[in-house]
Amino acid sequence: MSTPRPGWYPDIAPHVEPAWRETFVFELRLAGVSGADVGASLAEVESHVVDSGETARDAFGEPADYARSLGLPTAPDQTTAATLRTVWPVVLWVPGMMAAITAAPEAATGANVIVRVSVILATLLAVATFVLAARWAAPLLRAAVSHRWGLLAITILVGLTFVLLALLLATGALTIGGNLDLPSRWVVSVGLLAVAAGTVWAQIAAPRTVDVIRAPLDDDDASQRGPVMAARVVLLLPLLLTVALVVAGWGRAT
C-alpha cells in the first residue's frame, strides 16, 4: 500500500486505502478544518480500521459524505474572511505595479504619461477576477472534483472570455473612454505607495503559523518557523520587483 505524498500529510493512517484517505482529507480541507482536527480524524479512522479489520469505505461509507457528517469547525485562519484578508493586497499590488512601472521612463525626464482608460479597466478586471476566484475557491474546487470535465469547459470558456476582454482593453483594440494625461512622477509615487501599502497589509494579514496536518499530540511549532519566514520573505517580492523595474525604466530613459 502506498504512503501519502510528502508534504501532503504525515503517515497518520497507513492502513486506510489511499484513495479514500485523500478524498477525506481533501473534503475536510475544503471545509477549512484545521490540520490538528484533520489529523485527529484520520487517526480515529486508522484506529477503527486496524481494530475491526474493515476497510474505511465499508466502515464509514463515502469519504466526502463522512467528512461532512463530522461537522468539524472551521479554523479561524481558514474562513473565507481570513482567506480574503490575504488576497486583498493584490488589489493594491497589481494597479500600483502597473502604474509605477509604466510611468517610470517618463518620470525620468519629467514628461507627462498618457494612460488609456481602457488599460485601467483591464487592470481592474484582472484584479476583480482574481479576488472572485479566491472568494469562491472552495465551491469551485469541490465542483471540479464532482463535475470535472463540465466545470473545466466552463472555466476555460469564462477564463478565456475575461483574458480576451482584458487583452482587447489593454491593447486598445476595444476602446472605452479616452486617455488621461497625468504627471508621471506623481503616478510613479502613487504606484510605489500602493505597492508598499499592499506589502504592509500582506505582512499583517499573513498567518503566524503554517496549518499543517499532524498526528494527535504532535507539536510542529519549531518546524513551522522556516516556512513562515520564507512566506514573509516572498511577500516582499512585489515591492522589490517594482522598485527594481522602476529604477531600470528610469535608467533607460536617462
Task: Briefly characterize the structure.
The protein is mainly alpha-helical and 254 residues long. Helix content is 70%, strand content 4%. The chain contains twelve helices and two strands; from the N terminus they run H-H-H-H-H-H-E-H-H-H-E-H-H-H.
Draw up the topology in text.
Blueprint: H1 18-30, H2 35-52, H3 56-60, H4 63-69, H5 80-87, H6 89-109, E1 112-116, H7 117-135, H8 137-146, H9 148-171, E2 179-183, H10 184-205, H11 221-234, H12 237-253
Antiparallel strand pairs: 1-2
Task: Give a verbal description of the structure.
- With about 250 residues, this protein is mainly alpha-helical.
- It folds into 2 domains: about 20-75, no CATH class; about 80-254, no CATH class.
- The protein contains 12 helices and 2 strands, in the order H-H-H-H-H-H-E-H-H-H-E-H-H-H.
- A two-stranded antiparallel sheet has the order 1-2.
- The radius of gyration is 24 Å and the shape is elongated.
> Helicity level, as a percent range?
over 70%
Q: Give average pLDDT, whole number.
A: 79
- Give the helix tally: 12
Distance between the termini: 65 Å
List the uncertain runs. Answer: 1-8
Strand-residue proportion? under 5%
Q: In this structure, how is the largest beta sheet organized?
A: 2 strands, antiparallel
Structural classification: mainly alpha
Shape designation: elongated
Q: Using DSSP, what is the number of strands?
A: 2
Task: Based on the model shown, name its key terms.
2 domains, two-stranded antiparallel ribbon, 4% strand, disordered N terminus
